[in-house]
Amino acid sequence: MEARIRARVNLALTFFALLFFVAGSSPPRQFVISNAERRIDLSSHIINVHLTLKVENAGTRSASEVVLALTPTEVDHLAMVDASAIKGKRKKTTSVRLEVKPTELPDAPPIDTKYFTIYLANPLNSGESTTLEVLYVFTHFLEPFPAEIAQSESQLVFYHDTALILSPYHIKQQTTFIKTPSTKVESFIRMEPTNRVGTEIKYGPYEDRPPYSISPIHVHFENNSPFAVVEELVQEIEISHWGNIQVTEHYKLIHAGARHKGVFSRVDYQSRQSSNGASSFRYLLARLPPRVHSVYYRDEIGNISSSHLRTDSLKSELQIEPRYPLFGGWKATFVIGYGLPLQDFLFESSDDKRYLNFTFGCPLIGMVVDKLTIKVVLPEGSTDPSPVVPFPVEHHLEAKYSSLDVVGRTVVVLEKKNFVPMHNSHFQVYYSFKPIFMLAEPLMLASAFFMLFVACVAYIHIDLSIRK
Amino acid sequence: MVCSWGGYTFIINLIPMHVLLCIVTGRFSSRLYIAYAPLVVLGTLLAALVPVVGFNAVMTSEHFASFLVFIIIHVVAFVYYIKGILSPKMFKVAVTLVVSVGLAVCCAVIAVLIALVASSPTKGWSGRSLSLLDPTYASKYIPIIASVSEHQPPTWPSYFMDINVLAFLVPAGIIACFLPLSDASSFVVLYIATSVYFSGVMVRLMLVLAPAACITSGIALSQAFDVFTGSIKFQLTGASSNTEVDAAETSSSTAESQTDAVKTEKPEETAKNRPSRKSKKKEREHGEKPSTEAKAEKKRLLALPLESSVISLLLLVLLGAFYVVHCVWAAAEAYSAPSIVLTSRSHDGLHVFDDFREAYAWLRHNTDVDDKVASWWDYGYQTTAMANRTVIVDNNTWNNTHIATVGTAMSSPERAAWEIFHSLDVKYVLVVFGGLVGYPSDDINKFLWMVRIGGGVFPHIKEPDYLRDGQYRIDSQATPTMLNCLMYKLSYYRFVETDGKGFDRVRQTEIGKKYFKLTHFEEAFTTHHWMVRIYKLKPPKNRIRGKTKKSKSKTSSTTSSPKRSGTKKKNPWQ
Fold this sequence. Notes:
The structure holds two protein chains of two kinds.
Chain A: H1 2-22, E1 31-41, E2 47-57, E3 63-70, H2 72-77, E4 78-87, E5 94-103, E6 114-124, E7 129-138, E8 143-144, E9 148-149, E10 156-162, E11 170-179, E12 185-188, E13 194-197, E14 200-209, E15 216-222, E16 228-240, E17 244-255, E18 259-260, H3 266-271, E19 284-288, E20 293-299, E21 302-303, E22 307-311, E23 316-320, E24 331-341, E25 346-348, E26 354-360, E27 368-377, E28 383-388, E29 394-400, E30 409-419, E31 425-432, H4 440-461
Chain B: H1 8-24, H2 30-49, H3 56-59, H4 64-85, H5 88-119, H6 127-133, H7 137-141, H8 143-146, H9 156-163, H10 166-178, H11 183-201, H12 206-245, H13 251-273, H14 277-293, H15 295-301, H16 306-335, E1 342-346, E2 349-353, H17 355-366, E3 372-374, H18 380-387, E4 390-391, H19 400-410, H20 414-423, E5 428-432, H21 443-457, H22 480-484, H23 486-492, H24 496-499, E6 503-504, E7 509-510, E8 521-526, E9 532-537, H25 545-555, H26 557-570
Parallel strand pairs in B: 3-4, 3-5
Antiparallel strand pairs in B: 1-2, 5-9, 6-7, 8-9
């Protein structure tokens, strides 16, 4: 803790020291943020930071690149960053998504600061201003303190941030709102004017802060929301052109909150549920596509009997219960599998290719997935696959052999780290496939049997005896 | 055979017995020799390849019978060979010579063998086999064998449950085997006789009885069908031929009987396909007349009356059908229920008790990979396979001492038990407790066996200490030794808080000691229905010099020091 604060102070000092060298010389410095409002939502273990910036071009030239700055710890835990421009006034607002890319600023003063550049749709002329909305999502950012709790204790966590927004621009006015899940806040660092009402802590407004000014704060508060993290999720989507898509999902689940310490008493857990194991969780909800069939839920040692499936025409909900309630640090692994009708997800594109349109994501609600691997197993004989995913992922090809495969099935493997529910979106895998390959396996079987019978017939009719 | 089960000793003793029987009854033939001699040689060699058996295939008495018969069959074969070469006179001389010399040699060899066998502690027989020969042996000397419910003698209902109608068909089958006694049928008789005996000793040997019972009752059924169909055939053809012979006597009767024959044939065909009531009635009506006509011939050929044979045929088919229904039911209800997932039907549907797998999954995911788990040996294989953790004892009950150590720990007071477990490097102790939901085969009910097995090796554990007036009880009348032993404490720890009284639904009583604390163990996990409880051994406390000396030397130095030395003596692993 202390070391970190000291590091931050040092960092701040270097910021200020280096500031003099570069002030006025770098090109992004032409913007001024006239008003910044930050809303930090700490109600679950996925932290959403909504940043509303009113950017004004104070320079002489028109510019289209706005730079955001983040500390290295923030970047390590950053799951996604999303920016959009707000157009219109008051009620008639429309937002346009903008492109955000991580960039390196070679002449930027603080070496450790990481930058993201927002590319505006229209360049901002000198003197004009625009409103930008930025969403940061952080995971694994709340630090449980104490790090180990007993069954009857509730979970307290630290949130570290700075009261002033880190930015390469001059900020004329800024306010930060921090929303905690409950009114139980152990402590927080004040920086006047600071105001706490109910579940909200308000920092600011602060006037006229120079670039790279920070002021470390922390909030120590109660957060009993389930810190459910899927350490690894491998989702295998197997396409069969005979009319079925089989999805198999392998989960490695962990409770990433404060570690459970000492005794687990069932009698306390069952009789005093409100005060016991407040941060533990028992049920998980998976939202599956509609018209799902043959759903199973099992682990290495067989079927897990505690699950319920509710289906209607729009969605299917699978409520599952791991074999035991998960306390801090406890793990569980399980497999969910289901079949889907092919016509809902496979389409033909205009250029005579086929494509699979599927949700990129984890069906379990409110989960952070540390490593998500999606394997799309294309039918045997399909060629030149190409995935289209709305955000950057790693991908490579594999081959898989299932029964009666000769050349192996092409598998498109997509890997994404630090996945949050906000990422949920559709992705496509394009490939070309000749329908004649569908008949390959039946024909192979038929010909094998035919050969067998022919051989039998031949054997019966051939006389191999030496003597007549 | 050897690979799969230790019960192979049954077969390798049964076959020599049959061979010996054949030799004694003068049924020796070269076919028998060719069948038996290679079996012994090859079979022994192959059995010795199985790691568990190894040299036991030639070392233990269970295998001696086959070797003995192997020698005998060679002698007999040699005698027959000599007999073929020499003239009868010379043969007699040779026999007297050989017998006198051979007897002397045999006596010497047998004496050596007996001495060898007698020198081994169990007389060369393993405990399991001895308990087969003497059903009371195990309960007297080897509690670990007697403790297994599979090793108990079966009750009559279990016979009817398992083999059902076969129980009645088997005697008939044995009789059928004797009708023409051949080499093969004598084997069947021997097989059924021995397997009935063995199944009477142990429930699990019902497995051996089942195929034998199937074979003999199959023989019985086939014989019965043979007789019935034969007599029907005879009745039909016999009736028509009779009428032809007697045609000259009375033309009127021939007409009647011919029509009868025609009529009876028709319903007979339909009866074979589907036994309807109408056809039965018709048969009864028409069957009477021809039966009276051909009485003389029937008696000669031991044929049955037509109607009774048809009816009994139908009854037999019906019996078979019911048997199939019973088998399907038994397979579904009794044999297919996994003992690891329990279900109970209540008014609001099926309730599943999946506590065992809950506990095993918890162990698998939330303990260190090299943690050791101690439990009663029944759960050893399950823990190894499902929880993927090392266990101290498992269902391979070869190491009796080890099981006795765990039994001793379970029946010792907490401190002594902790020392035993700690010396075994155990991290977690698992007990099965059915008192909350009424699951009867839990560790408290098995506990007396732990005491017996533990006491068999470590004599300071005495069974009477756990019994009040010869009765095993856990209520307020229980002995203090019982109420302070580890098993009681681990099972009932904080149990009273569930209902306020601590009512055990298996034993149907309130428990004796309700409020107590654990000092050397802590509850690590308890499943949803409390069926499996896992405790963690607390780490040994640090010695704080000043404090412990002051407090302990004053209060409990006199009491604790003899205790400690006592526990050290008790603990065999230190």
